[in-house]
Prior knowledge:
It is a single chain. The chain has a three-stranded mixed β-sheet, covered by helices on one side. A three-stranded antiparallel β-sheet has the order 3-2-6, with no helix packed on it. It folds into two domains: 5-82, Endonuclease Iii, domain 2 (Orthogonal Bundle); 94-206, Nucleoside Triphosphate Pyrophosphohydrolase (Alpha-Beta Complex), CATH 3.90.79.10. It is elongated, with a radius of gyration of 27 Å. The protein is α+β, with helices and mostly antiparallel strands. The protein is 25% helix and 18% strand.
Amino acid sequence: xxxxxxxxRVVSRLFSIATPLGEAKGEIRGQVERMVPPTRPGDxxxxxxxxxxxxxxxxxxxxxxxxxxxxxxxxxxxxxERFPVRLPKAERxxxxxxxxxxxxxxxAILLRKRADKGLLGGMTEVPTTGWTARIDGATTEAAxxxxxxxxxxxxxxxxxxxxxxxxxxxxxETDSAAPVGHFWSLAHEISGxxxxxxxxxxxxxAIPGAxxxxxxx
Length: 217
């Protein structure tokens, strides 16, 4: 029995399977196994997938053209789009933190490399507070990685798979040495750094155009 997303949709409508899709996969497969003919099972599988792709579509299914409409429980009930039943998506938790864009006199930006394992592993970032998918980080300039005349440059939002993130962005000009584990990246090198999109948003909030490719001076 071949069961993909299209076949799941056809079968859940054919039998009005009210169990949410994540829990109904075994029930759907059982129905398909009982339907597979002893001859030409490959043609049956292809026909089921074609039916789901062209007629039994997710929105506005073309039930009047369906060859099994007289046996389709969802069509008979008049509500085929109700199936397959899906549970509402869980709302993503919102995490907060702060990010710090330190700019040296020559335009270099202070960066550091993230740990190799975990979220955004091995990528480059400006210093941020200790937010994770489970906890918030500090949100004020008091957590800055080095002394400076820090001022808020904006706030950015970013959506990860399992949570949403808001970062307050702070900016300061400084000629301090890079703290341990950090390094200065010249303005023309920023576009070549392994910056994830969330960090590009942070830098752009503080220095518009900074992540675009620039010529060395």
